[in-house]
Write a structure and sequence with these properties.
The chain is 38% helix and 12% strand. The protein has a 5-stranded mixed sheet with strand order 2-8-5-4-3. Helix 9 runs antiparallel to helix 10 and helix 14 packs across helix 15. The longest helix has 23 residues.
Length: 442
């Protein structure tokens, strides 16, 4: 028994795709010199356009002189599309940024009829498209909130959801807020009052003159061009007191190498060292005699400071008695310039302000003897004061504290052991230290 052959299927079989062959070729119809010809590549970062959305390309032609060597004739190219509810347009800035980053594609078109894929010979950069909803175009954008509205909204939010600390801060800020509208009616009165009060204020020059006049230093010249003219000698030692000083006994003693025998105060190392150097100078020199009188006056000032430092003060007779035969005119001058007396009392007291003034006069005289370069350390030892206090007194005179160079030390006959010592140097024109107004650093 023979079996029947299987019935053939009536369905049409699809051609086996494995037997289909594809060919690739360049599209000769594409012009490489026209950037807007042929298909274009666009991307939709946020919303995909419907398939039936028509797109058009618009370009602005370049001027003849601006055409590139590659034949490109468009300066700008825009891709625009419009759907029923949305409009699309290419973003020139974003598209240029994508092109500059090196993003480009080769496009190909497949023809199913001939089984060929045509590749466009020139790469394309994508156009970044942005969208605009048509229904929202007529709605104006909301204005940014004002500072007042922002503050009110922030306060309301803090009072509703803030912590206890945040609410306390909000209430404190509200208490400190000034109502500007309440001051509009009195603002002009406030301004007029300020102007009226400011009429009596000093100008900058007047304030400087007042500060200079109240300095506890000898009379000075702010315009002097030489250090010796800043503090004149006759303003430190009056002429009457200078004439009353007798240096003849000292000159006689210097001939016998006795440097301290006739001094009123013999325990000042600074005076003794200078007397040794003066003894080597020419005897009949006017400068030598003037320097001897200044040294003698310095010893008088040291003795006066020792006598007047009595805690309860002394009367004039007691002071003269203790001044070791110092001329009376000199003692009277020192008492009148550097001591104070209470009403109805003959007692002379060296107050703190007078002590500061006395120190300024003493150091100004020492600067003149030292040719305006003094060593604060030596005088600090003689005065039994700290070097810092003596340096501050020199600064109040307008001196600058600095070390001397090798040449400067050699010219003054100073030892190399003083290389690191800071000397008080007075230069012209004098510059006083400025008052610090800021807070001290911790």
């Amino acid at each position: 028994m023979s079996s029947n052959p299987a019935p053939s299927s009536k369905k049409r079989k699809r051609d086996d795709p494995s037997h289909e062959s594809l060919s690739f070729e360049l599209d000769p119809s594409s012009s490489t010199g026209t950037t807007a010809s042929g298909p274009l590549l666009g991307t939709f970062p946020a919303l995909q356009a419907p398939r039936d959305t028509p797109f058009k390309c618009y370009g602005r032609k370049k001027a003849k002189k601006d055409k590139d060597d590659d034949g490109g004739k468009y300066e700008r190219t825009l891709v625009v599309g419009e759907a029923s509810a949305v409009e699309f347009i290419s973003n020139e800035e974003e598209s240029k940024r994508a092109a500059d980053s090196g993003c480009s594609y080769l496009l190909a078109v497949r023809d199913p009829r001939t089984s060929t894929i045509k590749i466009l010979p020139s790469p394309k950069t994508p156009y970044i498209l942005t969208r605009t909803v048509k229904a929202l175009k007529s709605i104006l954008p909301a204005d940014a909130p004002s500072t007042l509205a922002y503050g009110e909204a922030r306060t309301a939010l803090g009072e509703t959801f803030g912590t206890k600390k945040a609410k306390a801060a909000i209430r404190a800020q509200e208490r400190n807020r000034v109502d500007v509208s309440a001051m509009q009616g009195v603002m002009q009165h406030v301004v007029d009052g300020i102007d009226k009060k400011a009429e009596g204020l000093l100008t900058k020059e007047e304030a400087k003159d007042l500060a200079d006049s109240s300095r506890l230093v000898p009379p000075f010249s702010a315009t002097a061009t030489e250090p010796g003219d800043i503090y004149p000698l006759n303003d430190i030692i009056p002429d009457a007191e200078m004439k009353a000083l007798n240096i003849l006994p000292i000159e006689q003693n210097l001939k016998h190498n006795d440097h301290v025998g006739m001094l009123f105060w013999k325990h000042c190392k600074w005076v003794n060292d200078h007397l040794k150097r003066v003894g080597q100078e020419e005897e009949k020199s006017k400068a030598r005699k003037r320097k001897l009188k200044m040294l003698l006056y310095v010893s008088v000032m040291f003795l006066f400071r020792r006598v007047i430092s009595h805690p309860k003060g002394l009367d004039k007779d007691s002071i003269i008695e203790r001044m070791n035969n110092v001329p009376t005119v000199v003692v009277d001058g020192l008492l009148s310039r550097f001591t104070e007396t209470t009403r109805g009392s003959p007692v002379h007291i060296l107050t703190s302000s007078m002590s500061t003034k006395f120190m300024a006069y003493l150091l100004a005289l020492c600067l003149r003897v030292d040719d305006f370069v003094s060593n604060p350390k030596t005088l600090a030892d003689d005065l039994s004061l700290s070097v810092t206090n003596v340096q501050a007194a020199y600064r109040s005179l307008g001196c600058k504290l600095k070390t001397l160079s090798d040449r400067e030390r050699a010219n003054r006959g100073l030892s190399d052991t003083l290389a690191d010592t800071k000397f008080a140097v007075l230069t012209a024109p004098v510059q006083f230290p400025k008052v610090r107004t800021g807070k001290k650093k911790a």
